Amino acid sequence: MGHIQDLSRRAFVFGSAAMAGGIAFGFYSGAEAAAPTASDNPLTAGLGPNSVTFNPWVEISPDKITLIAQHADIGQGVGSVQPIMIAEEMDLDPGQFEVRFAGPSPAYFNTGFKEELAPFLASDQSPAAEAGRAAALEGLRKSGMQMTGGSSTIPDTYEKLRKAGAVARETLKAAAAKRSGVAVADIRTRSGHVILPDGKKFPYVELAADAAKIPPVLDAQTRDPATWRLIGKPMMRLDVRAKVLGELKFGIDMKMEGMLYASVKLNPNKGQPMKSYDAGKAQSMPGVKKILEINNGVAVIATNSWYAMRAADAIRCEWAPSVYPAEQADHWKVLQSSFKPEFLGKEWRKIGDVEAGLKTGTRIEAEYRAPYVAHQPLEPLNGIGLVTDKGMEIWVGHQSPQFVQYVAATAIGLKPEQVTFHNQWTGGSFGHRLEYENVRVLAEIANQMKGTPIKLVFSREEDFLQDIPRQIALARYSGSIDKGKIVAADLQLASTAPFKGLLERSGAPSKDPDPQLAAGLWNVYYDIPNFRATTYEAQGLSPSTTWRSVGASTGGFFTESFIDELIHAAGLDPMKARIEMCAVPHYRKLLETVAEMSDWKGPLGNGRGRGVAFVESFGTPVAEVVEVTKTDRGIRIDRVWAAVDVGKVIDPVNFENQVQGGIVWGLGHAINCELTYAKGAVQQTNYNHHEAMRIYQCPVIEVRGLENDPKVRGVGEPPVPPAAPALANAIFAATGLRIREMPFNKFVDFV
Amino acid sequence: MIELTVNGIKRSVDVVPEMPLLWVLRDELGITSAKYGCGVAQCGACTVHIDGKAVRSCQAHIGEVAGKSIVTLEGIDKKEQHPVVQAWIEHQVPQCGYCQTGQIMQAISLLTKISKPTDEQINQVMSGNLCRCGTYPRIRAAIHAAAAKKMAEK
């Protein structure tokens, strides 16, 4: 403890030329001389004697092999799949290596974001699109930005981790060749050993010192997929056993010698300071050690987190009022008045002559709404912080290591490199662990308690009150149908800007339009001759941030519901019409697949109904069918079928779990969740107000993974967006009621 | 000082009697399988067994339960061989895993009372345990598998 590693000093500079039309990040820098570059290996500095590291992902000492997980595990399983991809190439078996989360370093810059940040449709594989992605990649390389998110772990690491494993394997073989005098070509590897032709075996750990003395074999070739032992085959996630046995320590379970507990009461008017407080009662409560004033509230230091929470609750505070509207109704009013040129985000796509198209045939208009929603992973925000004269150490589960350094350092006047970050296993995120409320507050508290490790735990109520929600959005859609075809669609959306908000709070503001508002809006793959997609960015509302599937969680609902409205108005079958209109062959295949899985044959009758939806988000196309029954007590969600194309399924079991979980997430929040503001604070402060799905409402979910996409894609978020519109479309089929606003329980009951 | 028995071991803690068991386990005794999720019996992540019954430890004041038999997942007899634990591993139920210790304690309790539960009975007993990752299809499958395992053992 107290040891300050030589961590990254960054210069986040995104050339706006590289990002033309996409998003350009602002300049953000704790940059100093001799900033490490992406090619530097951050493992070198911490290497022990007779140990070797070949690249930022593999480290071998005389007693163990350590594989580095650069993406944070927030429950999506990447603490397992990342090392598995390395182990595949290194001929390691599960159990033969340890896994460690990466510290902050530009070496771990996220290459996967090139797909999302280049302004091209995912289906566009043209040379211009690929050139745009290559330019985006260079921007990312220069930025050194290390972030988990956007379903990018697999796209980022699929090539580079296998390559890292191959380099390690070939270098170990070269070391064995040098030691034994046998030609490398006659040497093989198996199960953590280099094996000579005579059968003599060297464990990798025994070769570490030798391997450190030779240059790494950088031109090592990755294996032919036909020879894979692990990838693509059903496997046991490495964290399952420890999680089931209750042995895995999450961030909230960590303990340190001499540690005290903290809890907070913060201004629920987000981003505003505290005016005054009265801690008279709290001061004398059991277990209370100290009461501290911090920037936007108070903290209680106590001997137990329950004492801290209880005392924090007893403090009376006077808050500065919100800068956004205090009452929810006024948030909607702001959105309604945001469809104006001065709030224009961008016209993302225009095909044909929309005005003329809308005048052809029958015109349909609809307004759709999606509320603020909370993330609320089950592990509340927490963290352990220790400030000494040298700097700060912080133990917290987070998706953006470098931004944690920046936020913590900025809060207490340190330089980012004075903050040492230790990532932790995290009990869910859904976008929550991309924000910094706990980080900033923990830095402030630990700074006032220098020398004492402080474990901060938010109460669930405080976590709800401080949750930076999903964007609120309102869509105004127009379309027209003529002679049984959709001839025009004009999709206009006003919304708060989640990704831009996140970047700003990360210290990397952008002036470009928020690309997440285009998700589910511009990437429509139906052959509609006159089409336009336009975003407006509402100003002065609640801060918002990325929430599992981000823009597509709202845009996908609006668009796939509206397309359904147009299809029904044209008198067509929702499935057949979509298949016929779908312009991308392997996306069409997904619709055909869910049609086959669900045995889609048109209306079911007898109070039963099915809805279909198709949304591509983060490059991954997903088609879903939801089946419901109208009962005496309300709508019952019976079954869901999902077809997902990620190009290559790496871990089939976790893949299915992620798809099922994404559907449960999408359905649960669509039926009963919203955050509403009153007097500047959200009114929902625990799960009884914001329940989402429980097991009694969970349908049977059948999943199929297809592998036709030319690229390897992620799966953490893309199953979410089609769930809500497929459900709304099913409810329409069963009842004739068209629901245009989430949560749906405003209009129907669910059983 | 309050004396209590957790997982068959006598312990003593110096806390107020109204402190809920959950924080005695986690912050005083370092027993962390019971998790803090909501604090108001809405999520089930803190589920432990008190005198053999599944209880939300965030609602059980230590002063009232100190004399009873308290068992957390750590103290389940022959834990690794337990049919529920085995089924949870075989079905790879967890994603983030934060709720799963509570789910398992609730499922063990369910199968003690009903040896072969229907989906409806699973819904009734398990709906107090929230899983934000949405592992419900696997929880259901694992409970059925555990029930079958227990039957086979008899």
Automatic annotation (TrEMBL), chain A:
The keyword DNA-binding does not apply. Keywords: Membrane, Transmembrane, Transmembrane helix. It comes from the Bacteria. The chain crosses the membrane at residues 12-31. GO terms for molecular function: oxidoreductase activity. It holds the Pfam family MoCoBD_1. InterPro entries: Ald_Oxase/Xan_DH_a/b, Ald_Oxase/Xan_DH_a/b_sf, AldOxase/xan_DH_MoCoBD1, AldOxase/xan_DH_MoCoBD2, AldOxase/xan_DH_Mopterin-bd_sf, N-heterocyclic_Hydroxylase, OxRdtase_Mopterin-bd_su_IorB, TAT_signal. Residues 245-323 form the Aldehyde oxidase/xanthine dehydrogenase a/b hammerhead domain. This is Isoquinoline 1-oxidoreductase.
TrEMBL record, chain B:
Keywords: 2Fe-2S, Iron, Iron-sulfur, Metal-binding, Oxidoreductase. Signal peptide: none annotated. It comes from the Bacteria. PROSITE patterns: 2FE2S_FER_1 (PS00197), 2FE2S_FER_2 (PS51085). The keyword Nucleotide-binding does not apply. Pfam families: Fer2, Fer2_2. InterPro entries: 2Fe-2S-bd (IPR002888), 2Fe-2S-bd_dom_sf (IPR036884), 2Fe-2S_ferredoxin-like_sf (IPR036010), 2Fe-2S_ferredoxin-type (IPR001041), 2Fe2S_fd_BS (IPR006058), Beta-grasp_dom_sf (IPR012675), Diverse_Oxidoreductases (IPR051452). This is (2Fe-2S)-binding protein. The keyword Aminoacyl-tRNA synthetase does not apply. Residues 1-76 form the 2Fe-2S ferredoxin-type domain. One of its GO terms (molecular function) is 2 iron, 2 sulfur cluster binding.
